[in-house]
Amino acid sequence: MSILEGYHAARRTAGVIDFSSRGRIVVAGEDRVSYLQGLLTNDIASLKSGYGCYAAYLTPQGRMLADLSVINLGEALFLDVSSSCTTMLVDRLREFVFMENVTVEDRTRTWTAFGLYGPEAARIVSEVIRLVEGFGITELGAGELSNLKEYRHFSGEFSGTPVVVVRSDEIGEVGFLVYVESPRSPFLADALRQAGAKALDVETFDLLRLESGRPVFPADMNQETIPLEAGIQDRAISLEKGCYVGQEVVIRILHRGQGRVARRLVGLSFKQSDVTPPPGTVLTTPDDPSDKVVGTLTSTASSPALERPIALGYVVRELAEVGTKLVVLGVDQRIPVVVTSGSFLELPRSG
């Protein structure tokens, strides 16, 4: 299936992608909640069974080591993390266990994840998965599933095999992450496709999440990034919880610096252009004869919805306001762009 076919499936009906490469970690033991509460940026202690959140794991200097989803399964906490961070995160979580009753298991090879997205995604889940433990969810009607908040989840069953289904908003459409034991994953994939989902590849998913304005690790965030630079603080950081690693830096920026950082991750909308510059391409201002670098692209793609290129990138604070006009220094050309905010899907379409 072509990128465009997969793209239209996810926007119009449903698309499914194999996320086997994403890391899956289980943290168990009586002290699991208090342990992660002291390490991660979000309020893990407030999560009831059946709920989850987005969080970051920082260095003492406030830089990001990883971003991750935290799912409270009741008897354990389930972490979904970028493949680039899995080994590091498992090692660090184990390293800091001293007297706590905590175990950390890497389940990446034993469990597989599928991402299911699109207007028909809820219907497909309701047809393929049987509810076992809803954590307050009493039925799997398509309407009820569509209205769940992000990271809300339930335990289900597929052909006698346990699954966990988590609500996801990664591409701006109704979506779900479905976790299943790896030996059964080919059968679940077939069932999802037979119910109407079309296969998506990584490139297509990257285009879809970029259109929704969602940054990912390590493309748009890495170990040099402060969460406030990436604009993820509203989703990833709790201002009410107690101490965690890197909190002092975050609080100092928020309170003493009034949230100001030297650079900010922004959306960049191109004017009509046939050229999509690669990540790493730099930006300047339109009237600077010296072409002083003021930013760098991190994710780029050509949007079928807008019929022009779009990008995420870091820009110096003074030029990060919505509506600011900048120039991408492409090969032998200067390409005008405009700073945007939020989802690109909210922008006017071409024509």
- The residue ranges in which pLDDT falls below 50 over 5 or more consecutive positions are none
The run of helices and strands is HEEHEEEHEEHEHEEEHEHHHHEEEEEE
CATH topology of the domain at 3-20 and 111-211: Gyrase A, domain 2
CATH homologous superfamily annotation of the domain at 3-20 and 111-211: Probable tRNA modification gtpase trme, domain 1
Class from secondary-structure proportions: alpha+beta
Quickly count the helices. 10
**What form results from the Cα inertia axes?**
globular
Subunit organisation of the chains: single chain
Distance between the termini: 28 Å
Please estimate the helix content. Answer: 10-25%
Q: Strand count, sense and closure of the main sheet? A: 7 strands, mixed
Measured on Cα atoms, how large is the radius of gyration?
Answer: 21 Å
Give the CATH architecture of the domain at 3-20 and 111-211. 2-Layer Sandwich
pLDDT averaged residue by residue: 95
Strand content: 25-35%
Brief characterization of the structure:
The protein is of the alpha+beta class and 351 residues long.
